[in-house]
């Protein structure tokens, strides 16, 4: 059987979805581990990571069942949803790679404003810093965060924003690169699903097109 045959397409699609399932379980496990060890206490952050993991896990299960049973409807919804995820992830990955320092500061400020005080103090304790960015535009928020900062070395500590931005460029490149890699595996999954869906099952009635 050549690699482009029915069995090869089926096995490749099943293998790809098994990988997606493992990634989904990994995300759920990492979120639970972070919560259990007190690394992040915000239920919104934990819930978001778990939601992404569960979504990826469900999509992988749909694709795996559709591949095993050659189910036309499940394969159709699988490839449509996976293509939408591909477009979204490709856009986010390209944005990460193209983001400059000014945009990074704006993004950090937006994210910092929606965090609750408990999450902020957790980050300050872990990073040994106080506040986000001590600039003219953010002076009021920085002074408020400085008062509530639990770190001992307030006067000598860097701001959390300075520490985050120091590693932000490298982190964004890594995130963008990983995101691009997985986005191309998703378009591979779409191509495999389309190809496999239009192939005949050799075990079925040769006169029937499945």
Keywords:
210 residues, mainly alpha, 7 helices, 75% helix, elongated
Q: What can you tell me about this protein's structure?
A:
The structure is a single chain. Helix 1 (6-36) packs antiparallel against helix 2 (43-69) and helix 3 runs antiparallel to helix 7 (160-197). The radius of gyration is 23 Å and the shape is elongated. Residues 37-41 have low confidence and may be disordered. Helices cover 75% and strands 0% of the residues. By secondary structure, it is mainly α. The relative contact order is 0.14. The chain has helices at 6-36, 43-69, 72-98, 101-114, 117-127, 139-148, 160-197. It starts with 5 loop residues before the first helix and ends in a 13-residue tail after the last helix.
Beta strands, count: 0
**Largest sheet descriptor:** none
Spatial shape:
elongated
* Continuous helix count: 7
Q: Helix-strand pattern, N to C?
A: HHHHHHH
Strand content: under 5%
In short:
With 210 residues, the chain is mainly alpha-helical. Helix content is 75%, strand content 0%.
């Amino acid at each position: 059987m050549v690699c482009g045959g029915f069995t090869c397409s089926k096995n490749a699609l099943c293998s790809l979805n098994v990988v997606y399932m493992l990634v989904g379980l990994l995300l759920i496990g990492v979120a639970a581990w972070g919560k259990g060890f007190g690394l992040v206490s915000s239920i919104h952050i934990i819930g978001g990571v778990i939601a992404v993991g569960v979504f990826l896990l469900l999509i992988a299960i749909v694709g795996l069942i559709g591949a095993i049973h050659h189910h036309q409807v499940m394969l159709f919804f699988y490839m449509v949803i996976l293509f939408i995820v591909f477009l979204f992830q490709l856009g986010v990955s390209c944005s990460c790679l193209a983001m400059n320092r000014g945009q990074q500061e704006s993004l950090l400020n937006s994210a910092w404003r929606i965090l609750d005080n408990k999450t902020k103090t957790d980050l300050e304790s872990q990073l040994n810093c106080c506040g986000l960015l001590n600039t003219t535009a953010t002076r009021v928020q920085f002074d408020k965060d400085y008062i509530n900062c639990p770190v001992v070395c307030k006067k000598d500590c860097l701001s959390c924003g300075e520490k985050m931005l120091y590693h932000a460029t490298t982190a964004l490149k890594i995130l963008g690169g990983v995101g691009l890699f997985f986005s191309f595996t998703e378009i591979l999954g779409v191509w495999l699903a389309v190809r496999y869906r239009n192939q005949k099952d050799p075990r079925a009635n040769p006169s029937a097109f499945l």
